[in-house]
Design a protein that fits this description.
Elements lengths: L6 E4 L10 E7 L6 H8 L7 E5 L3 E3 L2 E3 L3 E3 L2 E2 L1 H21 L2 E11 L1 H13 L5 E5 L5 H6 L9 E7 L7 H12 L5 E6 L7 H14 L8
Parallel strand pairs: 2-3, 2-8, 8-9, 9-10, 10-11
Antiparallel strand pairs: 1-3, 4-5, 6-7
């Protein structure tokens, strides 16, 4: 099985050959790349397999997973293909690396957050959880996609109070949507624009460690 995406993989330094590991697969924002995402999750590298997935469509000096008709309006055919290919990639990575299939997480920013939430809705409890940083769920996903239950999926959503790309009301709407779908929702606002603050990073790293059973209480 081949991958439709280029990717970076970081394996724990002292891996136990008989052990399966939790995994975080990162999805970057429009015009960025997989290396820019690693810094957000590098503190997890001793305990998680970290895979940064690069969008397969060049955009300036970076990449994207799909193109847009306009802001907030993905080209449907390209978006559908990205969702299919990313589902296949998750399976590919699980077969190739010693990943615990019951502890697979997606972490995405902006376009990557949009895809992470969509994949949670299409894959259901095939994922343990997602971290969505400054994104939204396209309306056509909510109304036209075959959705699966996410009641057992852990969801961390954060949004910038001063986000100039996706206004903060979108963060509230997205959280409200998921609150109706799962009791395992964590939602935070941060005093930022379209970005990730140190406080935001600290919170989702602790959330991931706690959800994966690596710590029992928040540090």
């Amino acid at each position: 099985m081949n991958s439709a995406y280029s990717y970076d993989v970081h394996l724990p330094a002292n891996m136990d050959p008989d052990k399966k590991y939790p995994a975080v697969l990162t999805l970057h924002g429009k015009g960025s790349n997989e290396k820019n995402m690693f810094g957000l999750v590098a503190p997890l590298a001793d305990n998680f397999i970290i895979i940064g997935i690069r969008g397969n469509l060049p955009l300036g000096a970076g990449y994207q997973y799909y193109d847009l008709k306009s802001l907030g309006n993905p080209i449907r055919e390209m978006f559908d293909e990205a969702v299919r290919e990313l589902e296949a990639f998750i399976q590919y990575a699980t077969e190739k690396y010693p990943i615990d299939p019951s502890k697979r997480y997606l972490l995405g920013f902006s376009q990557g957050a949009i895809l992470s939430m969509t994949l949670a809705l299409t894959m259901g409890n095939e994922l343990k959880g997602i971290v969505s940083l400054n994104g939204y769920v396209p309306d056509f996903v909510k109304t036209e996609y075959p959705l699966r239950s996410v009641k057992d999926v852990s969801v961390f959503i954060s949004h910038g109070e001063y986000d100039s790309v996706f206004p903060v009301r979108i963060g509230h709407e997205t959280a409200t949507y998921f609150k109706e779908q799962t009791p395992r929702l964590t939602f935070h606002l941060y005093p930022t624009d379209h970005g990730v603050s140190e406080e935001n990073q600290f919170d989702f790293l602790n959330w991931l460690k706690q959800d994966a059973g690596l710590i029992t209480t928040k540090e």
